[in-house]
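Final report, Chapter 2: Outcomes

The project's central promise was a pipeline that accepts a single protein chain and returns its three-dimensional structure in a standardized token representation, suitable for archiving and comparison. That pipeline is now operational. To close this chapter, we reproduce one record exactly as it appears in the project archive, with the input sequence first and the structure output second.
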Amino acid sequence: MKTLPRVDVVIVGGGWTGLLMAKELGARTNLKVVVLERGAPREPHDYLTDMDELDYAIRLRMMQDASKETVTLRHDPKQRALPIRQLGSFLPGTGVGGAGEHWQGLSLRFSPDSFEIRTRTIEKYGMKRLPEDCDIRDWGVTYQQMEPYYTRAEKLIGVSGKAGNLNGKIVAGGDPFDGPHSAEYPNPPMKMPHVAEMFRAATASLGLHPCPVPAATISTAYTNPDGIHRLGCVYCGYCERFGCMIGAKAQPTNTLLPVIAKQKNVTIRSRSAARRIVCDGSIKDQHAKGVSYVDEKGEEVFQPADLVILSSWTLNNNRLLMLSNIGTRYDPVARKGTLGRHLTHQVSTGALGFFDKPLNRFMGAGASGIMVSDYDADNFSHKDLSFLRGGKFMLLASGARPIANFGVLPPSVTATWGAEWKKASIQWYDRIGAVIFEGEHMSYAGNFMDLDPTYKDHLGDPLLRFTLNWQENERNMSDFSNTKATEMLRAMGAKETTDPARLQNYDCTKYQATHIQGGTTMGESPEDSVLNSSQQHWDVNNLFVLGASTFPQNASGNPTLTILAQTFRVADAIVERYLKNPGPVG
């Protein structure tokens, strides 16, 4: 193994969190920083002439290669886990920028009670109301502590929206269920496509509180605090699974890389796949010495560093810590240990409505739409319901690209091929509206990650194993949300609607969201978390972990904005406290 000269900081993962941390350290310190990214380099101009739906959206050009590394899945410990051979329910990105290049741009703050979910739920409903096997945890940080960092993240990416709560005052046009904002969003809401306005009118008629979805796709030209200038959206519909061709959607390559390129103390090494974090010392008092990785030539390289920051995607964060024998792995029988615990995804359901007039579905953006939060979190009474928590209903006009959206037909059309099917597919192509529900997924003791004893990757390392299934709380929540979604579509004037099936076992073939959380969770003590409230490893003082793997469970909203806010918060902890006095920062 080749050993390189020591650096001050090595960051594993070149997505939103890793590059934001590199930018912050590069601007605020003289530290020599190296970012290791397993995938290829990317530049904003890569997307100018290459919006190929088949290549990007169907063949998943920007995603990790499941033939080289994947996860195995089982629904309970009695089953043998089998490899997920094709990406389906989630789509991990790869390359510089990671999943931040192909995300939709939804930029939602988490509800204030999400950060203290265990305390608040028990106070209101009592321990007996918690679902069986429920393992929810408080974060060890509150919304009030997070709020300034949410504001910084919104300014960084230029969120377009309307705050519904400014310093405790409810503001018309925004989300009245919002936690308090200290500042308005940096850009006004996006233009609302026709079908989104139909949803706004329909939900308002039902007594709900529709508002624009906060979007990282900017509605007008904007210059952020780093001096990065981006153009406003043109509503081409090529957002999710694509990089933005004009830079309207905030991505690491157009928001962070231009700043990093000017920082001589930051280096990005692409095609460098981390295999181990190398430590010495006892299990409970380790010290990270650096990271070993495989370079683009297939050679093993060791990069020594004084500080290690793990900032890859949830699955990769967990797997690297397990392969490196850092931390205490979760034992689901004894209910002890922390690493791999609190695996959560996101409950994504909804219904389709079929209308008698065209809706101009081809125009839109990943996050252009309307949402209602009346049934999110604990915003509504659960007294007579068979589940706890909730989620947001949305109608997003994301752009109906022709390959994936052709052939979606109402229940009254029975043809599945031939001339009748083709005629119906053309007729209904522009007459479909989807009301989606993004719901919370609470953590359970029976949902966890560990290393698979049988299957290995192309380098010979064990794959990560999922033990994951929906519980009755999520199934009952989806029944409730499906009924509400259908009600909203009928209020919009839909002539027909689909009848969504009830959630059964977790299905890895149907897309849910790329929002997988947990395994390296933050908390208030080493007995129930891997990291302290500053996302510093309890057992390895010079190791910090970033990203959604640190979430004890997922709130309903997409996690990216919270991930960015957390990264700003950890950067402050490192610069203002850790570097001045290396050791536990709390």
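Archive annotation: The mean pLDDT is 95.
This record, like all others produced under the grant, will remain available to the consortium after the project formally closes.
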